[in-house]
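Colleagues,

For the teaching module next term, I've prepared a clean inverse folding example: a structure given as tokens, and then the sequence designed for it. I'd like students to try predicting residues themselves before seeing the answer, so please don't circulate the second half yet.
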């Protein structure tokens, strides 16, 4: 059967953030003070979000979902091993694969790609207009191009996920990693864009996510549960290369 609900936040990931009733507390950006209790199955998805056109016609609703599931199924075991503080250096490829996929598959990434492609189309239209290669604008609508909206085929941002994953791999290569256990009374939160990296040398007011200097410092955050986070820091790259995943308490 065709898969209809395409989760961009895996249920296997969200289960670590559930309360005793099996619900995750969801906060919407348009009402951030109201908690909405939802099961992992009922949040973090769009209908047919990873569907692709078939060369012979029609759409394939399952191929990417099946591919993602092969990576997601390993995550609960990894989380349990992290809680037991076991040596996970043999599972680093699976951990990094899960993180890279989570960076690339979410709406925050795909929407940004489609927006950039739309701006490219607008810029090309303006160049054609400036070169006199477009029909004259109707009288009274001389600013028509300022109001054009461009919609990009979502299939284009699915293709671009490959590039995002490769870029994520280059960033991961620059970082040393720790599993940090939260011993405070303040729980870690997650979001629909759970993998974040940034340049820690930039002042907070000027900070932009995912913007890095060539060979500059990097910090990465990936919450695993309210009491556990994978923390990456470029200053720990050499130690990580020789000793593997570190462990620390916060």
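(Answer key — instructors only)
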């Amino acid at each position: 059967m065709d898969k209809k609900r395409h989760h961009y936040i895996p249920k296997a990931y969200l289960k670590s953030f559930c309360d005793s009733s099996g619900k995750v507390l969801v906060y919407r950006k348009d009402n951030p003070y109201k908690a909405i209790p939802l099961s992992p199955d009922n949040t973090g998805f769009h209908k047919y979000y990873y569907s692709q056109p078939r060369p012979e016609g029609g759409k394939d609703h399952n191929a990417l979902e099946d591919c993602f599931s092969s990576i997601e199924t390993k995550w609960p075991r990894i989380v349990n091993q992290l809680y037991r503080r076991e040596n996970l250096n043999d599972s680093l490829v699976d951990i990094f694969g899960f993180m890279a996929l989570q960076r690339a598959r979410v709406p925050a990434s795909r929407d940004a790609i489609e927006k950039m492609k739309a701006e490219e189309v607008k810029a090309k239209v303006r160049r054609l207009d400036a070169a006199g290669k477009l029909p004259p604008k109707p009288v009274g609508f001389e600013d028509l191009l300022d109001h054009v909206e461009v919609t990009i085929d979502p299939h284009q941002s699915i293709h671009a996920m490959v590039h995002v994953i490769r870029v994520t791999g280059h960033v991961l290569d620059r970082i040393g990693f720790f599993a940090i256990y939260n011993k405070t009374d303040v729980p870690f939160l997650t979001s629909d864009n759970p993998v974040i990296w940034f340049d820690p040398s930039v002042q907070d007011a000027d900070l932009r996510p995912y913007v890095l200097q060539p060979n500059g410092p990097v910090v990465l955050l990936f919450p695993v549960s309210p009491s556990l986070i994978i923390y990456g820091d470029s200053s720990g790259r050499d130690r990580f290369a020789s000793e593997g995943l570190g462990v620390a308490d916060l």
